[in-house]
């Protein structure tokens, strides 16, 4: 059963609603466009014990349940949390109902009991939160003593090739702003997360065209950009973007999309 929670957001409510709608629309296409998301999630998964029997773990921003299924396979009791009910339905279709629960909830209002879970696993969800200290504080609150939270989030400078190409087309914002290194550290301090470890890897994905990159972003639901005006991506505009992106094509004819990451572990 998928439970619902009253949504509470620190940022603009209409913006959070648009994010929810974008991911809900992408529920049926997400898996075929999520190669990058799987790469990042596997980096986090490597930080967890192979045997999670008897442990309760929250998959925060579970999407279609790809990693929820793998956590189940390690013996964990899994709580799938996502802002999109359609994503949760996909997760339920993948993972079933044995030893797993589904909760439609915002990471900025994690309505779970205090000190109730052993681990929180959150891969590429926190960048959609307006103020990082809010989910960090919620994560700290729900972790048991000696529990751990593992998270991955996108950092400032991600998709800089796409952003640079768009600047040559028009003056509008087409790529989301992401948190800086110092903002992540300040948010952890404000959330009273005193013990943590962070590293900052980069991953570059390669595409035959800018259109293919844009299709992947839309296919996973990551095409909502806060403050972007509508009606800006007609055929002519996309052709201009394609032309502008060619300046970074490599000798194999491929275009880069670079992601800057924060991989973090919070110790309770």
From TrEMBL:
<dbReference type="GO" id="GO:0008757">
    <property type="term" value="F:S-adenosylmethionine-dependent methyltransferase activity"/>
</dbReference>
<dbReference type="Pfam" id="PF08241">
    <property type="entry name" value="Methyltransf_11"/>
</dbReference>
<keyword id="KW-0489">Methyltransferase</keyword>
<dbReference type="GO" id="GO:0102130">
    <property type="term" value="F:malonyl-CoA methyltransferase activity"/>
</dbReference>
<feature type="domain" description="Methyltransferase type 11">
    <location>
        <begin position="58"/>
        <end position="151"/>
    </location>
</feature>
<dbReference type="InterPro" id="IPR013216">
    <property type="entry name" value="Methyltransf_11"/>
</dbReference>
<comment type="function">
    <text>Converts the free carboxyl group of a malonyl-thioester to its methyl ester by transfer of a methyl group from S-adenosyl-L-methionine (SAM). It allows to synthesize pimeloyl-ACP via the fatty acid synthetic pathway.</text>
</comment>
<keyword id="KW-0093">Biotin biosynthesis</keyword>
<dbReference type="InterPro" id="IPR050602">
    <property type="entry name" value="Malonyl-ACP_OMT"/>
</dbReference>
<comment type="similarity">
    <text>Belongs to the methyltransferase superfamily.</text>
</comment>
<dbReference type="GO" id="GO:0032259">
    <property type="term" value="P:methylation"/>
</dbReference>
<keyword id="KW-0808">Transferase</keyword>
<protein>
    <recommendedName>
        <fullName>Malonyl-[acyl-carrier protein] O-methyltransferase</fullName>
        <ecNumber>2.1.1.197</ecNumber>
    </recommendedName>
</protein>
<keyword id="KW-0949">S-adenosyl-L-methionine</keyword>
<comment type="pathway">
    <text>Cofactor biosynthesis; biotin biosynthesis.</text>
</comment>
<dbReference type="InterPro" id="IPR011814">
    <property type="entry name" value="BioC"/>
</dbReference>
<dbReference type="GO" id="GO:0009102">
    <property type="term" value="P:biotin biosynthetic process"/>
</dbReference>
<dbReference type="InterPro" id="IPR029063">
    <property type="entry name" value="SAM-dependent_MTases_sf"/>
</dbReference>
<dbReference type="GO" id="GO:0010340">
    <property type="term" value="F:carboxyl-O-methyltransferase activity"/>
</dbReference>
